[in-house]
Amino acid sequence: MRIVEHPILDFQRGEKVTFYFDGQPVEGYTEETIAAALHAAGIRVLGHSPELHRPRGLFCAIGNCSSCLMVVNGEPNVRVCVEKVQPGMKVETQKGKGCLR
Amino acid sequence: MKQTEILVVGGGPAGLCAASAAAELGADVLILERDSKPGGQLVKQTHKFFGSKKQYAGDRGIQIGDFLLEQVESNPKVEVWPDATCLGIYEDGVVTAEKDDKHIKIKPERIIIATGAAEKALMFPNNDLPGIYGAGAVQTLMNVAGVVPGKRVLMVGAGNIGLIVSYQLLQAGVEVAAVIEAAPHIGGYLVHASKIRRAGVPILTSHTVKEAYGNDTLEGAIICRLDEKWQPIPGTEQDIKADVMCLAVGLSPLTELCWQAGCKMKYIAELSGHVPVRNEYLETTRPGLYVAGDVSGVEEASSAMVEGRLAGISAALSLGYGKDKAPQLQAEALAELKELRSGPTGEKIMNGIMKLLGKEGAAC
Ligand SMILES: Cc1cc2nc3c(=O)[nH]c(=O)nc-3n(C[C@H](O)[C@H](O)[C@H](O)COP(=O)(O)OP(=O)(O)OC[C@H]3O[C@@H](n4cnc5c(N)ncnc54)[C@H](O)[C@@H]3O)c2cc1C
Ligand code: FES
């Protein structure tokens, strides 16, 4: 859920666009990270760990821990907590270590 | 290859102040900042800062960050590269970075590392469930993106960060189920604790997380009481329903670049982990490589700013800038640091620094 009114902050989110999460359309804003847009849509499982296949979500949100790796426009291992939303972008949950196409 | 006199890695309060100070003495500076907006921790701090008036106490963190950034941007000798991550520092002095999907090489004459700190994790079963975040991540989601992390939060840690983030969650309209703290007393300032107590949030001291549970994402956690020896007391378990758990159990210095650059490192508990050995002027054992801020010991924004200034002045002076003014400016910064570290928390930091400088037991 996005915060609409805040006692101190005023959010500059940019332009509203649509991108795709595992094929489903999701709304996001161009100044938002992919992780923030997915969270706003209630999506918190971003991938699965390579060996035990446990669900993975955000942990640090600043590009430090690699807990949020996803496949973006076919490219695996993208840290979605620091990658901004772009219109029409295809974001997929990553299974395993990902392979380069 | 990009040339610069001084390369600053990290655009938090320490890095921004280092850049301003060095540029004011006449040096050319390049700042690399991994995030799209420089300011470090300050970009998500909506509360009014504690510390000394000289370091802008009383202003909100975000305002301090904006002010430091304006100061840097108004100086033509400083170039700021946002969205640029420093990747490595090599034997021949070449530094590599990633910017706009490109691999860039930089040849600086001096380097100041001001990469800050990262949150610590906590060990318990299922601590990897989505919905369990570092406190900083919750702040980034809430205060930078304007997205709430969930509906009901269990906060772990009653230091200043845990207390402040709990209050910010309440401000954003999120319910805080409880704040739990393993120590027998609240670590943070009473002003922050009182604000959340007044809002009806319980602060449970001598409590820890026994385990988290949830199907795919966090649904709740079992917490329990600890005895005087910090051992769980059987039969005191409580089930707290929460879709978010926020870990505010301390930070550790982000020192990868220092290790990789070959700086001598030392474990100092008072400074929150392994930190680079450095002299009074913040130069490490690798000549020409300085450190400032949380990376050299987790402390506060106020001391990070002064350390940044000291490192910036020292690096510029070593290049021959400001020979007349710099020694006086260095002395002033050292005096300010001493003053900032005069309280009870400061005493701990001073002990740590004395260990680092190899002057244990010396009067400071
Ligand atoms: C919730 C909270 C409340 C706080 N309240 C107060 C307060 O009231 N008063 C106070 O004095 N202090 C407070 N602090 C502490 C203060 O924010 C920190 O001590 C201070 O920000 C440290 O500054 P820094 O410049 O060393 O690091 P940071 O602010 O962490 O900045 C480091 C920067 O380096 C960048 N970076 C890291 N690695 C790389 C790389 N490889 N390449 C490029 N860039 C990189 C990061 O993106 C970041 O921007 C608070 C902290 C928190 C989390
Ligand atoms: S959540 Fe840590 S790198 Fe993205």
How would you portray this structure in words?
The complex is a heterodimer of chains A (101) and B (364). Chain A has one helix at residues 34-40; strands at residues 16-21, 24-29, 47-48, 55-56, 69-72, 75-79, 90-95. In chain A, 38% of the residues are buried. Chain A is mainly beta and 101 residues long. In chain A, strands 1, 2, 3, 4, 5, 6 and 7 form a 7-stranded mixed beta sheet that branches. Chain B folds into 2 domains: 2-118 and 251-360, FAD/NAD(P)-binding domain (3-Layer(bba) Sandwich); 121-247, FAD/NAD(P)-binding domain (3-Layer(bba) Sandwich), CATH 3.50.50.60. Chain B is globular, with a radius of gyration of 21 Å. The N and C termini of chain B lie far apart (44 Å). The mean pLDDT of chain B is 94. Chain A binds chain B through residues 1-3, 6-9, 11, 13, 32-33, 35-36, 39-40, 44-46, 49, 54-65, 81-82, 84, and chain B through 34-36, 46, 60, 62, 85, 118-119, 121, 128-134, 136-138, 140-143, 145-149, 171-173, 216-217, 254. The complex binds flavin-adenine dinucleotide and FE2/S2 (inorganic) cluster (FES). The site of FE2/S2 (inorganic) cluster has 12 residues of chain A, from loops.
Characteristic key phrases:
heterodimer, A: 101 residues, mainly beta, Ubiquitin-like (UB roll), 7-stranded mixed sheet, 1 helix, B: 364 residues, alpha/beta, FAD/NAD(P)-binding domain, 26% strand, binds flavin-adenine dinucleotide, binds FE2/S2 (inorganic) cluster
pLDDT < 50 runs, ≥5 residues of chain B: none
Helix content of chain A: under 10%
Number of helices of chain B: 9
Note the overall shape of chain A: globular
CATH topology of the largest domain in chain B: FAD/NAD(P)-binding domain
Report the CATH topology name of chain A.
Ubiquitin-like (UB roll)
Total domain units of chain A: 1
CATH architecture of chain A: Roll
CATH superfamily of chain A: 2Fe-2S iron-sulphur cluster binding domain, sarcosine oxidase, alpha subunit, N-terminal domain
Q: Give the helix/strand class of chain A.
A: mainly beta
Strand content of chain B: 25-35%
Tell me what the CATH architecture of the largest domain in chain B is.
Answer: 3-Layer(bba) Sandwich
CATH uppermost class of the largest domain in chain B: Alpha Beta
Distance between the termini of chain A: 34 Å
What string, H for helix and E for strand, traces the elements of chain A in order?
Answer: EEHEEEEE
Rounded average pLDDT of chain B: 94
Shape of chain B: globular
Order of helices and strands of chain B: EHEHEEEEEEHEHEHEEEEEEHEEEHHH
